[in-house]
Amino acid sequence: MASDNASPFLAIRGLRKTYGDAVAIEHLSLDIRRGEFMTFLGPSGSGKSTTLYIVAGFQDPTEGSVALDGRNLLAVPPNQRNIGMVFQRYTLFPHLTVAENVAFPLRVRKRPEAEIKARVQQMLALVHLADLGGRMPAQLSGGQQQRVAIARALAYDPPLLLMDEPLSALDKKLREELQDELRRIHRETGVTVLYVTHDQEEALRLSDRIAVFSKGRIEQCDSGAALYEAPASRFVASFLGNSNFLPVTVEAVAGGAAELALPNGLRAGSVPLHMPMARGASATLMLRPDRIRVLPAPARTDGPGIEVRVRDVSYLGDSLHYAVVTPWEQEISIRRPLGDNPEAAAAIGDHVRIEWDPARARVYAAA
Ligand SMILES: Nc1ncnc2c1ncn2[C@@H]1O[C@H](COP(=O)(O)OP(=O)(O)OP(=O)(O)O)[C@@H](O)[C@H]1O
Ligand SMILES: [Mg+2]
């Protein structure tokens, strides 16, 4: 059954995987659209590879189902799933030329020689290695080897490409170069990609959506922008981007927002609630460093804010970073873009007022 655009291309439902008493993944469900670039982001041991390996067929789940284009994938033997795979470590056949590495999956599928030749050239051109078909893998740089691995994985036009930290063995510059290449290859081929990384910048740069993993579960799955603007939990807020977490008390709840008080009774403003919270409850206010304004004190405004002391100022070229200290001795991190109108910089030791837009802040139940 072919899926239309509305039904998921890959449907993962209620997946669970245990090793003895240890739970690797639990209650994991996820829909992936045809052509989507989906990234699994999360700390070490959170279940990213396990989920990928179940889709690939290297491992069987303890419970749950996986369907590709409406077909039960778990009933298909791994070698017949036709899924492309690229791993962290270079996995080229060392005794075969670059061209023969790319040709390998086509030879396994007994494609005609003329088709193999044409396809290998097409794939090597796609990864910008058209002239290196005759080299041996040992004569290639790490980045070039990963390009060959990508060409080989895409050679038989798989419906799904799985990649487990394919760039993590490369240095930063090469990694960024290959990230751009991957974006282009995804655009040009339209292949659906499941990608694993624990590098948040890489996830943001590459993905249509990011599934944030924690302890074998998906904490939140959304676009990078939505994850940054509206992280569903304190974990997501701290894992994707930088955050300040301020202790607050819920003073009142009305109209889907909570009136919050900081220590010393200072007002934190009326912050929209995305989880139920009762009056009197302890909670955590999350403020992104780039969403806090710095004003000379004493500033006279009606908005929520705090008078703070500047502990440190660092110049970062395109922005200024402030470390300020609240009256309750908590350090808060602030990042102000410099742009065309750099604000009057505060100096170390200054007393300033910091303010924020409460409508764009987030509040979480206290841990
Ligand atoms: N063969 C195994 N036997 C026992 N436990 C395993 C096995 N494979 C994985 N695990 C456990 O399952 C959990 C999830 O592992 P997984 O490899 O999926 O994590 P990951 O998110 O890919 O981590 P990393 O970023 O380090 O690659 C971990 O706690 C791991 O120790
Ligand atoms: Mg892993």
SS field, number of helical segments: 8
Second rung of CATH, namely the architecture of the largest domain: 3-Layer(aba) Sandwich
**Helical content band:** 10-25%
Small molecules bound in the structure, each named once: adenosine-5'-triphosphate, magnesium ion
**Rg calculated over all Cα atoms:** 25 Å
Which percent band covers the strand fraction? 25-35%
The coarse overall form would be elongated
E-strand count? 20
Q: Identify the CATH homologous superfamily of the largest domain.
A: P-loop containing nucleotide triphosphate hydrolases
Structure summary:
With 367 residues, this protein is of the alpha+beta class. Helices cover 23% and strands 35% of the residues.
Molecular structure report:
Helices cover 23% and strands 35% of the residues. It has 367 residues and is an alpha+beta fold. It folds into two domains: 10-238, P-loop containing nucleotide triphosphate hydrolases (Rossmann fold), CATH 3.40.50.300; 242-297 and 305-365, Nucleic acid-binding proteins (OB fold (Dihydrolipoamide Acetyltransferase, E2P), Beta Barrel), CATH 2.40.50. Helix 2 (98-108) packs parallel to helix 4. The longest helix has 18 residues, at 172-189. It is elongated and about 80 Å long. The model has no long low-confidence stretch (mean pLDDT 92). Magnesium ion (MG) binds next to helix 1.
